[in-house]
Automatic annotation (TrEMBL), chains A, B, C, D:
Residues 156-252 form the Acyl-CoA oxidase/dehydrogenase middle domain. This is Acyl-CoA dehydrogenase. Keywords: FAD, Flavoprotein, Oxidoreductase. Residues 276-423 form the Acyl-CoA dehydrogenase/oxidase C-terminal domain. Pfam families: Acyl-CoA_dh_1 (PF00441), Acyl-CoA_dh_M (PF02770), Acyl-CoA_dh_N (PF02771). Its cofactor is FAD. InterPro entries: Acyl-CoA_dehydrogenase, Acyl-CoA_Oxase/DH_mid-dom, Acyl-CoA_Oxase/DH_mid-dom_sf, AcylCo_DH-like_C, AcylCo_DH/oxidase_C, AcylCoA_DH/ox_N, AcylCoA_DH/ox_N_sf, AcylCoA_DH/oxidase_NM_dom_sf. Belongs to the acyl-CoA dehydrogenase family. It comes from Zasmidium cellare (Wine cellar mold).
């Protein structure tokens, strides 16, 4: 049973959700979306400058989750707004939302950078929780997964490397080896980028992908995933990485150095050499959570542009900014493009719901290529409408742009996703070619029937090799 | 009951239809889509050069529907593939497809420019049939609508003018007046562009929008729609208009001169001065039929690009064109953008199904702005992959590009649609502003609670006028 | 001596020529530019529809140069406006203009598609004349070059092939062989695209590039250039190729079939196997003549857009089209982009003047990549400002767009030029790397001096291989 | 005498300077350019991380010019590399470079954000020095200008306001009034954005534009410019403004509040109500200094991209990044676009040299519209080639992008410049229309001569009003 008919289409939580999606929402989802909406409107948006102030203050001593967010996390947990992303397979822990339904929630969460965190729905913990739930043994789950689910700690994912082209993960070179002095221990050496920042007081552990068997003839069996506790000796953070200048405190992004770092063998996930198997399994809805949130963020950027366009104090050449038709068209362009991108994300979520993650692979790539790049452009247009102010901290637009720009490379640069899709398409070109060759035969029949001389376009008629190759038009 | 589960997702008629749409297709629609698919694959694509040859031959004597199409129309009628676009309100004549279902059919029809015509689903007749069905009296319906439905004649729509900015239809200046010498007759004087070509032997009549009462204080009551039979004396075609050089025979696009042309008063539709009322009613699904077909056309352009990329005879620098990663990424870009546009069109169709044409207004504009411009770009990339050949008649790509370019101005240039959407958005900005003002109050509360000094960004704190205007951030 | 100071900067022939170019014009060049300007303004632009009418009439019987153009060619010859492109090396035949000066002339000629032809400055004859002058023996020159210079005949260049990827010319497969039955004759077999149309009555001969020695280990010595007279038996035109639907009569573009076509051996240019040597020599200013003319053509498109913007009869929503700020900005965008492109072309012309054709290679590629694609976009924007009329024969804009689009592939698709430049840049990256490695040493010195700890970014400090590789920042 | 012929075209300081510019460089300029080149290569690029470290350290106590820059400024002064931008009108202080020559220097300086400052060529002081030199009396010059020229202090320019649309400067509302209690003093009240940061210890004074006579019927006489010393009571900095998150220490960008701030009347520049006169005079070469430097900055971004493309440690899918043809084409695109933009800037500089600042207005606007937006895009492509690292402090690319983005709004958003150019073009459309009307008459003559019927396109032949309006084609 769905609740499509009970939704008020003017309610701001639903106004930009396509009809086909509204029709599919369960009553529980409708209620949850409304709650998330109210939560973000009342607890997050108005609190933004306070969180900012708390972070700045905290940074003077220690990087940690700001008090306001800590309080909201407690409250969200009590109100059932925690771990909304968890699919049904998590049993009681799961709120039972479909990916499509969760997408509507995440869209709203995106309006504030840290809102997802108040509901324990933030990256990379969401992906990590799914990974741990899927591939850990019971002991590992109890030790590492449960505290995450309970919101008692945070985790990082550590894969990117500075020294190789790690967007092609078979290149990953950070070494993990048997400790020669202790059969129960492993030794790690290498460098990593982009795990969350170690300065973060609440961070508990890292899921590391490293090379355990560089000479294995199968390049997909050379790597292993292992859990690295934060306080592991020999594991050092070189610096916090800024993203376009932002430190993204308190989560941050670390640059790491492993120098004979030792971790217990029991921290291996699934088994030695099985990192790619796990990585494959991680390729699910979590891959588009960023995209979902970018929609809401761009929605908010658009609202700010609308406000600027109608600000009675801003009248260049005597008219409201929104009275200039270039701006009228610009707003329309943003509105329409954003909604088209929303359709792409929702379609991907639904495809995974119905057909599974593997079938959704193309739709995921489509999100990752189209959404971040275009959202960044849309937000940029909103910024420009604010003139000089648009680039300053007077608006959240610069941080929004930066987040969108970041997602263009997070989980792989867009070129890598285009490449994957393009190769799959070319692999499937044989079926298309076959169909087109059928046209030629039928064309000849029809030429006979209608007494028309057969045309060739740029190819010999003698049936030589290039004839098939040269199929263009229809013959 | 839907047939989603019975669809083979690899069937080429469904492979690019989103899951959510597949789920909504009735068994009858699934069957119809398959039939349309087979029809286009077997009867249309392979027949393209034959139709082209017949048209060229015919043009030497008379512009008329080529024999192959005439035969296909007869056959389509027998096989129940005629008038597929007709909504249920047409009773038995209607095949009972929803807009969403018809969209899947039209998408496929789009693969060949004239395929829609073989099924009597071509513009402008589809829009005209809806108009006549909705606004004509019984006598008019019998005389003008029935022959169209039966496929016995064709019609034109005549609105654009060369002498004024008719994209703003209140400017339309072609005059229609009472004939001083005959109370049952009207006299028309003026110039029109873009009604179909009079040279077309089968064309029966024009639906003309003209100015009957230029001094009416209400600009929306100054115009009248009237049926003008082709052989009306005083009604002359000055020339056939080419579109980017194409004559589009045998339909064509005429430039017309009315010099004291006389038509019977009984040909007025709905009533004098009610043209805008009718024009409003015409703003339904027919407005996106072009966009639906552009999808299929771009799909076919993409298939041609795939073939070129894998043509074993074409190896610049020794590699297949599709072995260059720039082309791999290009193909992926086309595939993904095209599918995103398909989502936009299907969403518009479904929105009209569920919420009605009026609620679909925004989604229609979204189609008209995003689809033609982007499809033209995608087809252009396909052309470029064919090198010099791409621009010649060796491929249908130049005609495809031209059609997409044409739709960017048909039914109004895209700027006009952006303008309409932008103005509506600005009208609704008040609600957004209200919400944002709520943030400010809540922010103050939270400042109190957390002991944080209230921040102002670029605005005085004294509550003066610009404070509200200046709401940016959240406070 | 230059005439820069004597130029009236408001004269329409000079208004958009940069100051630095004006300064370099000789008095003779200034005078010639003015004459070309008056010629195009008085003899060409107003005659456009007449030429069109004459061509249409001629086509019913024979494709030939329209009478008006024939007359203008006679007149231009008398007035010294013939063969303006000829460099000084042609002696008395040359008007003595630099490439830079000729560029200013060609820019103006570009306003009308056929204006260059009235001055015998049209492609492909300009390139062919240079080729023949440079590589033919005296007998060949007398027979083939002189009639071209005198304007008594026309020529074609035949290189592109339908069956291979001929943008990589080493793939050219059309075969030229010794005639086994006659030692003085050659036999040709193969297919060609894009030589001018044989239907053109005045066309005299083709310069053909074909494969004479497919097994030569040096791929650059396998091909030969030969002159093929139009009436050669065994040489057949399959069809005239249209470009985006335009037949480009009377020049046209042919698709050709050679079936044992026999030409005298004496028609070989320079020598067997030396086609690439000749092709290299052809890579001079002639390669950017199209780009020069595209500037003038886009200038005229822009003028038409300005006229539309200020047309008092066109008032959507009650205002001139040019009163909408979106159009004001659009016009500025076109104006500024066009002038930037003009700077690119003029710079390329001047670079060849001073440094020679080889040094100008990069600047030529820059023209070919930037100018056609961007001019096509600019013209497209002008078209859109005309609404529905913009795509019809009411304006010359569709033909202009098509010409710009054509030049994107003429003499190689833009991707090929980008590829060439990119590879050259990568070849030169060693020097850049060396310089950057110098920064590192200096940085270390400065660290010492200022007592700052050396930073490493994503690289080990141990001097291992990746250190040099990883140079990013400055250290 | 120029030194064009003595230049080594492979010297990295000249490699990308067009030939026409090289020809115009005086021997002194050639020498200066080389010195600037060596200076930036040896003193600035390798010192970047040290300056960064010094700034971070300084910020803990006081914002001030880092010691390394202080030392370089001393050294540059001694070596004659100080105040290079000063035109000849500054007498002995001026190095005598033309704008064109200075542009070549500034291009190189742009490679490092703070390099211009080491030579006292940084904004906004360059513009301020010109302003003070041009409009101040001798006493003012001695007090305010001399210390700037000597590099003893820094200055700010204060114009933008948060409360109005100050991109239209007639809106500026910050009030400056006679002090009722002291005839020699003025009182200022209002808010300003974007003057440099007051925290900067070396900052000496602000040039403020404020409203002195709001009711003056002439809106261009309502404003006054006045010098505001940094320590003026009642003049408070609210916060440092970040630009896309960067604090731009130690210069910064302040948000300011004037609350009954009092300055001596003698600080008025030129006279009460003459601010626009001064602002006009400021519109010279200083307006494109940012654009000049953006070229060098983008050049350096491009070099970093080249390094990444050829980094032997980075091999996705087993190949160098620069072995992928998509990247080869990308690099070519950046190279060619950057050089085209360089042409635009150099042309603007030269136009001002020869024709004066007023004639250069269009060329200035062309720079400001085309250069920052396109440089930002090019830098963004370089960033993306670095994958995840590209957004971090591992490369200077994020700061480079931010600077380019900032210049899109500095001195007015690009839309404002487009608007200005577009309006000027439309004003000049009358001349174009006149010319086009001439075509029509000539066309009629030619129709007569050639016996061709006159064509009309979309317009009546009866000479009525719209005939002229409707001129399209040529008739």
């Amino acid at each position: 049973m769905t609740a499509g008919s009970t939704i008020d289409p003017n309610h701001p939580a639903f106004a930009h959700i396509p009809v086909w999606v509204q029709e599919k929402l369960s009553p529980k989802a409708v209620e949850t979306i409304k709650k998330v909406h109210d939560w973000v409107e009342n607890e997050c948006i108005p609190a933004e400058p306070i969180v900012k102030a708390q972070i700045e203050l905290d940074k003077k001593t220690e990087w940690k989750t700001p008090k306001l967010i800590v309080e909201l996390r407690e409250k969200a947990k009590k109100e059932g707004l925690f771990n909304l992303f968890l699919p049904k397979s998590f049993g009681d822990l799961s709120p039972g939302l479909t990916n499509l339904e969760y997408s509507c929630c995440a869209d709203i969460m995106g309006k504030v950078y840290w809102a997802a965190q108040t509901m324990n729905c933030h990256a990379p913990d969401t992906g990590n929780m799914e990974l741990l739930a899927k591939y850990c043994n019971e002991g590992q789950k109890k030790k590492w997964l449960l505290p995450l689910l309970n919101g008692e700690t945070f985790s990082a994912y550590s894969m990117t490397e500075p020294d190789v082209a790690s967007s092609d993960a078979t290149n990953i070179s950070c070494r993990i080896e048997q400790d020669p002095s202790d059969p129960n221990m492993l030794v790690i050496n290498g460098r990593k980028l982009y795990g969350n920042c170690k300065w973060n007081a609440e961070l508990g552990f890292y899921i590391l992908m490293a090379c355990s068997d560089p000479n294995n003839p199968n390049p997909w069996s050379r790597h292993t995933m292992v859990i690295v506790p934060k306080d592991t000796p020999g594991f050092r953070m070189v610096r916090n990485l800024t993203i376009m200048g932002y430190d993204h405190a308190p989560e941050g992004h670390g640059e790491y150095l492993y120098t004979n770092a030792r971790v217990p063998k029991e921290n291996i996930i699934l088994g030695t050499g099985r990192a790619f198997e796990i990585a494959q399994g991680r390729l699910g809805p979590g891959r588009i959570h960023h995209c979902m949130r970018l929609l809401g963020q761009t929605e908010r950027a658009y609202e700010l542009a609308l406000l600027r366009a109608t600000d009675p104090a801003k009248k260049p050449r005597g008219k409201l900014i929104g009275a200039f038709d270039s701006n009228i068209e610009r707003l329309a362009h943003i509105r329409m493009t954003l909604d088209a991108l929303r359709g792409v994300v929702l379609n991907a979520a639904h495809t995974m719901d119905v057909r599974g993650n593997k079938a959704g692979k193309y739709a995921i790539a489509q999100c990752k290529v189209l959404v971040p790049a275009q959202c960044a452009e849309l937000i940029d247009e909103c910024m420009q409408m604010y003139g000089g102010q648009g680039l300053t901290q007077h608006t959240p637009l610069p941080e929004m742009w930066t987040y969108a720009r970041f997602v263009r490379i997070a989980d792989g640069p867009d070129a890598a996703h285009r490449h994957q899709v393009g190769r799959d398409e070319i692999k499937g070109a044989g079926r298309v070619r076959e169909r087109h060759e059928g046209y030629r035969e039928r064309y000849r029949e029809l030429c006979g029937k209608w007494g028309v001389e057969e045309e060739t376009f740029g190819m010999p008629r003698d049936g030589s090799g290039s004839e098939k190759a040269g199929i263009m038009r229809t013959n």
